[in-house]
Hints:
Elements: E1 3-20, E2 25-38, E3 43-48, H1 59-73, H2 82-88, H3 114-132, H4 136-140, E4 147-149, E5 152-154, H5 159-171, E6 176-180, H6 186-200, E7 205-209, H7 216-226, E8 231-235, H8 243-252, E9 257-259, H9 269-273, E10 284-287, H10 289-292, H11 295-307, E11 311-314, H12 321-333, H13 356-360, E12 367-369
Parallel strand pairs: 5-6, 6-7, 7-8, 8-9, 9-10, 10-11
Antiparallel strand pairs: 1-2, 2-3, 4-12
Helix pairs in contact: 1-3, 5-6, 6-7
GO molecular function, one term: racemase and epimerase activity
Pathway: Quinol/quinone metabolism; menaquinone biosynthesis; Quinol/quinone metabolism; 1,4-dihydroxy-2-naphthoate biosynthesis; 1,4-dihydroxy-2-naphthoate from chorismate: step 4/7
Family: Belongs to the mandelate racemase/muconate lactonizing enzyme family. MenC type 1 subfamily.
Amino acid sequence: MHVTETRLMPSRLELVRPLKTARATYWERRGFLVQLVDEEGRVGQGEAMPLPEFGTEPLDTCELVIQSHLKALRDQVFSDSLDAIEEAFMIPRGDPTQWKGIHLRVEEDLPEAPAADHAVELALLDLLAQRLGVPLSRLLSRSARSEVEVNALLTSDGPQELAEEARRAVAEGYRTLKIKVAGRPIDADEARVRAVREAVGSEVNLRLDANGGWSEKEALQALERLSWYGLELCEQPVAPDDHQALWRVQRRVQFPLAADEAIANPASIPVLLGTAGGMPAARIFVLKPMVLGGLLPALMFARQAARQGLGAYVTSSLDGVVSRAGAAHLAAALPWGKLASGLGVGSLFKTDENDPAERAFRPVGGRIVLPDAPGLGLPK
């Protein structure tokens, strides 16, 4: 693979309506699109949409690191293999003068920047899969599935509006609904969850996402009450850095808890998985490639979890279609595909409904069918 040209473009996405989580309210998302061109004119695409409150770098740091990565890539020639891409993001050991691969972190004291790494890694993976003539999912795993189930993210605030939104989602074919909780009184959250459950019946999966917005005591109180409504799981009920609280809450509730923001810190992974001794802190893990630094680190984490008998699924970080396409390919390649992924968020943004790229990765009947085309499969 010979990268003959690199491109970096700013990106902005405006939400249809503000999205409130326990951490913040979002009106727009800003980031960057990356393109890498090889010697035969193929174009690999990547995207960075940093979200510091979820564990990524700030926007200005993201741009700085992407520019450094692209500088290192220009006119580089390296092998057409996943190993070459993995090695590009690793710090070379031993004598740096003997390093034979490409190393992206060429500048000293370059800050950690998972969103920037994600953008460049995704563009490299897209380009490599195109060169090998395979969809990106099958580059990641030969046994990748051809489609992925996704959940519907409900964004209304009031119970009645939330119930109507839930009915529409189920009518469209979604079998898993996700509700943001915390950041409001427990009584209000219970009214919202009750309204959705009554609206859709008992056969639809309900999952909650607290974004770390409860204390341990609040989480126990809330989940004890909300468990009456038949929950599939709850994402990150307590603060991301309080692994012991997550462990204790998981031991007290009957349904699975999913670690989300907690896995943004690589040092936490052995504790969360239970590989450092002791029991896992959660039974399921939420993989955000933007936060984890790319598809390859996320896939490695999923495989580690599977070896421990633990589940994982993929969600976006309120990203654009390039990132969501990459996340969909990753979801199809996971060793454990029993849970719906959180990738049906394109409708949250003000985009052209006739955009071929958006249409290609728009859920139909609660599923995303992956294009059978090389690379990401995004229309040109």
